Amino acid sequence: MAAKEMWDYLTAAAANSTSLLNVTPQRTLNESGRKNQIVHIGDDGSEQIVSFSNDSIFTVALRWKVINESDAGTIFDYYNSTALGNGMSRSFRWQHPTDGHQYTVRFASDPSRIRQEVALYGFSDTTLKILGRAT
Amino acid sequence: MRTFDATQAAIVAASPQKVSWLFTVVSTNPTTYRWATLARSFGGNAYAFKVKPETFSGIQLNRAKSEAGLQVANTVTFDVIDSGNALTASDFPGGTATIDLVMSDGTDEEIILSFKFTIKDCRTKYQCLRFTCEDFVQDFLKGDYPTGKFVRDIFPSDDQDQDSDIIAPVPFGCAYPPIQSVYVNGDDRYYLLGPTARTYNLNHVYSPQEYGPKADWDSGLTCGLIHYLRFDENTGTTAGDSTLWGNDGTLGGTSPAARWSDPGYINSAYWFDDTTATGAACGNSAPLSGIGDPSESFCFQGSVNGFAISFWLKNGGDFLTERFVFYKYQDAGNNISVSRDASLSGGELRVTINGTVHETSLITNIWDGSWHMVTINFNKTAATDWQSKVYIGTTLEDTYTFSAIGNDISNTGNVVWGGTGVNGFKGQLDEARIYNHPLSAAELTTLFNYTASDFYTFTQSSKSDGVDSWKVCQLTIADSDNDGTADANGLWRKSGPFLPPPISLMQDDTYNIVAPGDVIEWVMEDMGVASGDIDTGASSSFETANATYVGWGLEFHGAYYKKKTRKKIIANLLNQCHSTLDITDKIELRVLSKTSQKTITKAEVIKESVPTGGSETVAKIGTFNTFTMSQSASDSGYIQWQEWGRPQDRWYKSLVPAKAATDEISNTVLELPFVHGSVLAQKLGSLFYQRKFLKQSGVSFKGKPSLLALQPDDIITINHADYGGSYAVLIDSITINHDCSMSFRCIKFSAALDDIGDLSPGAITVNSDDTNNYEVWQPAFGGPGGIDDNVNTWARMEDKPYLTVSPTSGAAMYETIQEAINAATTKGARIYLMNSTAYAQSTSLTLPANKPLAFIGESLGGVIVSAATGVDLFVLSNLKQDYLFQNFTINSLNSTALSNKGSKMINISGTASSDNDADVIIRDIDFKLKNPFSNSSGDQAIKYLKGTGVIDISNCNCDKGLHFWVAGGVDGSVAINSCLNLNRQTIPIQQGGNDNQTISILNNNIKNPKQYGIQVLGSTIGEPVTINGNTVSVSSASTSFRMGIDFAIATDSIITSNTININATSTAANPLVGINAAYVGNTIIENNRIKIVKGSSIAQYGVKLYGAYGVNLAGNNISVDDTGAGYKYGVHASSSYRSVIDDNYINGVNNSTNDIGIYLSSDADNNQGTNNITYLVGTSVSDNGTGNAVTANDSS
Fold it and tell me: Reduced to 3 states, what is the DSSP secondary structure of residue B417?
């Protein structure tokens, strides 16, 4: 079971842009998964569970503490370019840093670029919504 | 509570369960959009993720609240993602949104709930569309119903009631609505029924409610009659069906036209005498095709379904083979017939259903050559049992149950009367009828008692208003020429607009729509709801509800004839059958029930997360809560209902309790216009008021999705100590939330609710009020309806209709008095004369002796009726019915130089007294007569000759004339009271003598009579007369004046308190007498005031007794103070004896020998008296007789 990855629960999803974001994040990578479900708990503690979908909903949180100007520019461009992410409105491909798979994603939060010193940049936590396997 | 199938029930109860909300939106383009709160496919359709989940908070389902006259809407709102503003918001309002709740338990997936909404509003915001929707029925509940024009607008005329709000009736079953008349320009006045495409059975007409008097007319087309061969043609080869369906009978066989039989039972009949004939073949069109189908019959509120066949027969022909009277034969297993069986001993009646034969055992021999009415009720008594009941006349003579014969025994055979092709009936048939219900005892009695004269003609026709064509009718019910036969269009009017009479009718397309569910369906479709949107058909909610109503014996019979708001219409329909509508994707009908549909425990009530305050943590707490409600103080209210066969606008209001108490009575009225009979009405009323008045408090909670079957108006049981124990509540609203939790708001009642079966009120007895036929007193008020008399005669006239008259064209029902007299039926009438001075008669008004009539003027002086020159005005002869004349002026157009007795304004006479025995009242009449001031010429106001009735005259004036009142041969009684201005007649009141009369002349004021003020002459025997309180005043010159009161030949009479003042300016040719009493006995003459000031040179008498005996002459004040020559007597008695002359005051003036206080002639004997006082007379008492002892004190 331990070898299970997000890839295993997702279906293929075509991205708006076939460009691949492949800037390896630093320090942390959180994979969050949930399902769209409601648990109704009765006054007696009994439950009736309502599920709207069996699909898993994944997000990943990325942090780039120190990256060069070029990588920073790439990330900046994936968010701002209307041909790429165009903010949160377009999907694109993203290279998972560890499981080796490419996923179709979109930005789920606004990236905040930090200029640390000359030619060195960083980004605070940036969340990508996993839409499916990249095709 | 919704009924789920097993799969649905399992899904709803499952956990976990997968939920999808699917939105099918159709714009007004129309374009269909399929959206959802997530992208998915279902049922072969793809639903795009467009509905923002957080904006869809669920569907609000509300209880209709029919008890408040409402149909509260179900609502929903949601936002749809519209990236780039691709959609146009204005395309959606008016479109529909169907929302399906699709659920799965992991194995099965089905639509659990579906709701259809109308999009009321759609607006753009931030690339989203906000949809606001309400259930699709609401669109059809806006505005008024029915939608037709007011009748007043269809054929406008200057005599149309501009305030009338009556429309063409929309009837169901047997309805009895009022209908409005219209004037078709250049044609005539008609009652408007409806669109010309419709046909009607017009059954019965009642006089309008506003009219007052109650009367009704019958066409013979009784309610529920679906086929009627009268056999009145008496010629030809067709026997016409009088009902709207016109399923005429074609008479077959050899020379059918020659076999009519006249007379029949009513008019002609038909003699079926050809055994091979095909009889009267009527076919199998509707409604004949439905004979035997319970759904095509009426149960008439509590009776059983079925049908009836009725006919009159005479003779039966031979008995050698079976002879069929009624025959409807499809095949050997599907048939209905009535026949006379083959029997050499006489034969009985045979009833056959579907091949099962029943030989009746009649008591009456109906084959004896006489007319007999035979009626067979076919009652559906059980699921497949039918019972035949055979009545001969009105007597039940045979009952038989056809067990397990079938539910629907209708067949496709043709209806044939009197023949089958081989075994035709050999005898006469008349009045052959088929009803769509078994006849009640009352209906049988009515049917049995019908004669030709009971049938009135209601003629239908079509009239165009220039745009549309309308079916109208005229009711031939009026007898314009008073020959006893109705020959004119009956119209009602009461000094204003034409009034709408109620009419019992059946309409061709709705006569058999009587099941409440069917009526509701019809009305909703008429409001515009598509038939496919109503849950009807086999096993539908409407059919289930209808089956319940059948169990109650509830049918709707009634009509809409006024507009109401549609919501009130639907709410009222539902209140009339204790039901509600559930609006899903269709309209479902559900009978309300007290049965608890679910017990709510802690397992059903869910907790929800709420902030705890002060921190971001949340806690799960229970959602059960209570709330207060405003409570009604009332425990009872009224129902408005009617009995069978009564007009819809003649309802009763009866008090009903919600439970049992009627301590706090509300003025609220539940109208039940389609429900007939008090028992069902009371039950429906109590159930209505329980939900309306007994609300106590509320509870709310959020429940699990497992409660999805519950609906508003369901009863559920709350059961846990933490919730207050165990008790029933009514679900008032439910919100099915997006997460499928359900938010409930419920009503707790102060007492347990009931169902129909729990209630058993007794029938309300409504007594028939015949007060009008007795002596009543009512206060006075003017105009039509005014009753200002406590005299019996007038009270008996109180229930007569008004006929208004005005010479002004169109201002009243009639332009001449004679027309109104002619229009009055033998039941009588009140003829109201509207103000006009133009009632000039060219001839006498000869009044019918057999009609009680009252002539009432609008105002004295405002109404002037002028007699034609030289003829009498009102002529009444040999009266048998009472009359009244009141409140108008009568004017003579005669010359002032009349040379004879002129005209009699009211001339009442009998050939003999016994021929003239009705009562007459004359009051408030102002007579203006002509008088040449001769002693024998001039008009007479009232002349009465020979009669035994009561004559009551009061408050009249009379100027000039020979007589105000002149009478002879009176064997009844006469009262002349308070006529205050009898001026210048020769003899104002002249009463001839008779043996049996009783005369009362009181408080009249007579001025300047030419000869006598009051003259009363009795017979040879004498009879009581009272003359009291009258004033006779003479101040004008008259050479022939004689007496103030001339009273003769009477006994046991009273002449008291009269004032006689003779003060003429010239002398008279005759002796002057204040009171003359001749040949009177045992009479009181007291307290009169007599003054003679200017007489003549001849004798003058204060009181003169002649031939009198036993007279008590006392207390009179007599002044004879003329200074002229001639004798003057205070009291003069001759040929008189045994009288008391006492306590009189006699005042002379001359104090000479010609002035005598009391004079007793030589033939006046044995009179006595004391305490008389004389003054200024020459002789106080001149006693020339014997045995007298009359004294006086002279105070000169």
Answer: strand
* pLDDT confidence of residue B608: 84
- Residue-wise pLDDT for B897-908, tens only, equals 777 778 999 999
Helix axes B516-526, B566-575, angle to 10 degrees: 170
State pLDDT tens for residues A96-110: 988 999 999 999 999
Longest dimension (CA), chain A: 63
User: pLDDT by residue (tens digit) across B971-982?
Assistant: 888 999 999 889
Whether the CB of A38 is below 8 Å from some CB of chain B: the reply is yes
β-pairing, B1145-1147 with B1168-1175?
A: parallel
Nearest CB partner across the interface for B622, out of A37, A43, A51: A43
Those of residues 35-94 in B touching chain A at CB distance below 8 A are: 37-38, 53
For the record, the structure tokens of B1028 come out as: 């009291």
Distances in Å between the Cα of B867 and the Cα atoms of B1073, B1082, B1092 are: 36, 44, 38
pLDDT at B127: 93
CA distance A118 to A22: 23
Q: Kindly tell me if the per-residue pLDDT of B793 is higher than 70.
A: no
B605/A41 touch (CB, cutoff 8 Å), yes or no: no
Residue whose pair of structure tokens reads 């209806």 in the numeric block? B415
Distance of CA B315 to the CA centre of its chain: 43
Nearest chain B Cα distance for residue A115, angstroms: 34
Contact partners, residue B676, CB within 8 Å, separation at least 6 = B300, B301, B557, B641, B642, B643, B644, B646
Q: Measure CA A116 to chain center.
A: 24
Burial class (CB in 10 A: 0-12, 13-18, 19+), A49: middle
**Cβ within 8 Å of A, B 672-711:** 704-706
**Contacts of residue A82 in chain B, CB cutoff 8 Å?**
none
Question: Among B46, B129, B119, which residue's Cα sits nearest to residue B80?
Answer: B129
Mutate to test the interface with B, among A16, A36, A47, A48 (most CBs of B within 10 A): A48
Give residue-wise pLDDT tens across range B924-940: 999 999 887 777 788 99
CB spacing of A40 vs B606 below 8 angstroms = yes
pLDDT score of B777? 40
| Token representation of residue B150 | 């007011």
Helices (H) and strands (E) counted in chain A, each on its own, are 1, 8
Q: CA-based angle B1088:B1092:B1095, to the nearest 5?
A: 150
Here the ipTM equals: 0.80
Q: What mean pLDDT is predicted for residues B352-381?
A: 92
Read off the pLDDT of each residue in A43-69 and give the average, rounded to a whole number.
Answer: 90
Query: What is the spatial distance between Cα B721 and Cα B855, in angstroms, rounded to a whole number?
Result: 79
Residue contact A40–B18, C-beta within 8 A? no
CA distance A48 to chain B (A): 5
Q: Which two tokens stand for residue B1074?
A: 């204040």
Looking only at the bridges linking them, the beta strands covering B59-62 and B725-736 are antiparallel
Q: List phi, psi (to 5°) of B12.
A: -65, -35
For residues B238 and B257, give the distance between their C-alpha atoms in angstroms, rounded to a whole number.
Answer: 8
Euclidean distance between CA atoms B1074 and B1070, whole angstroms: 13
Q: Is B616 exposed, middle or buried (0-12, 13-18, 19+ CB in 10 A)?
A: exposed
Residues in chain B, total? 1196
Name the 3-class secondary structure at B119. Answer: strand
- B15 interfacial to chain A (CB closer than 8 Å): yes
Residue B5, C-beta contacts closer than 8 angstroms, at least 6 positions apart: none
Range with the poorest average pLDDT among B180-189, B571-580, B810-819: B810-819
Q: What is the largest CA-CA distance in chain B?
A: 143
